[in-house]
Fold:
Amino acid sequence: MILVIARKELYMMFCSPLAWMLFASIQLLFAWFFLGRLDAFLQLQPQLIQIANPPGFTEIIVTPVFALAAIVLLLMTPLLTMRQFAEERKNHTLTLLLSAPVSITEIVLGKFLGLIVFFLGVILLMVAMFLTLLVGGTLDYGLLISGGLGLFLLICCFIALGLYISSLTTQPVIAAIGMLGVLLGFWVVDLVSSDYQGWIYLVSIFKQFELFNNGLMDTFSLAYFLLFILFFLVLTIRRLDGERLHG
Amino acid sequence: MNDERECLTLSAQHIQRNYGARIAVFDFTLQLKKGEVLGLLGPNGAGKTTTLRMITGNLAPSSGSIEVCGVDLLDEPQKAKAHIGYLPEMPPLYLEMTVDEYLRFAARLHRVSNERTTHALDRCKQRCGLVDRGKQLIGTLSKGLQQRVGIAQAIIHEPDVIILDEPTVGLDPNQMREIRALIQDLGKSRSVILSTHILSEVESVCDRVQVMHEGRMVLNETLAELRQKGANLETEFIRLTQNSQSITC
Structure:
């Protein structure tokens, strides 16, 4: 049942131009930044050779592109998550899902999975772009995987949060703006916590991602991401169930 | 007694729903037998839609119990919901999908197996007069056709209980007649609840009528009984629904 709903979500995204335009514009942006970093690397190369243990492609190109991707996707995820429940409610189609023999948990997980698959596509396209670097050298696969995984977990958190905010309202636009507000709030927290000292970096979701992106797979960060996702998915389920009980 | 219970497809006992201090549905009891078409009548705001939402599991009753084909809706919602086909007041349509895609999704959602889906799809398109519309986007269909897609969605998994909330609103007289014929046809083998405020519709398709007013049931009789008494549905309706209004005023 989860798959049925995920499949429907993906279908709905790809039958409208929205998903394709997002794919194209995100990819264009990343490619442009990627080439910019590549250019910088080529200019730095003569100096890098003189260093004993020089940073490679991965540190100079991949890590900054992933860091940029986190910010760009922060702006993009609300566009997709806003529709999930708000639009279903607005078009009265939520009733179809709720009257079907499907549990609310399955509905929420189905939508979550659908969006994950979409963003997995975005990340895979980025990774494919990085793999072209193999023509001229080798990549640090560990760092690439760690960065990719970090970005993936970060997006999963965004999606879970977006689903919850979308379940609160009937207007997709309000869901998008609300979510953007919350995410920018997280970004501000990140800016305030400039180093890894004090308690504030513990609440910053972007700092956790940064650790992953620098190649450090910390159990704390992993637990942070997983708890974040779980927390908002449970809230979404509770919210939809509460509507049945109290609405 | 046992036999009677076996042929009951839907039984809602003393259900009540409060919205804060306001009581939308009060101590409502509804029983539906196999092969029966029940007309649920009432003025606007009488609580018809709230009742139907409770019966279909979209809304939890504040008290009371609901059984669908012997399965408790509150204890085993998924099992019970599989027996219900529901067309809400606003048909729940994805306007970006084609009719076929939408109905296939509805079938999958109701756990119709893949082998049976194609057959079910053909059959239900035929019943609802959508045979040559399969490839059309739902958003481009007229209101009447959209309404039919909504009905098709409710019957594709061949449920035992079909619940239609004002299915003929916004249709032209020809389409209305077709839909009534369809409801009558469905009523032969299944139970149908038809919520409406068009009295003639009830008279032409229903076996039994329940009238709601301000959340209460004020009449529950078969049409045959009504006819026997020589009572006219319209005068009864007006008497029942205006009478109690004057008490509250």
Notes: Residues 2-241 of chain A form one domain. The mean pLDDT of chain A is 89. The radius of gyration of chain A is 20 Å. The interface with chain B takes residues 1, 4-5, 8, 11-12, 15-16, 91-103, 244-245, 247 of chain A (CB under 8 Å).
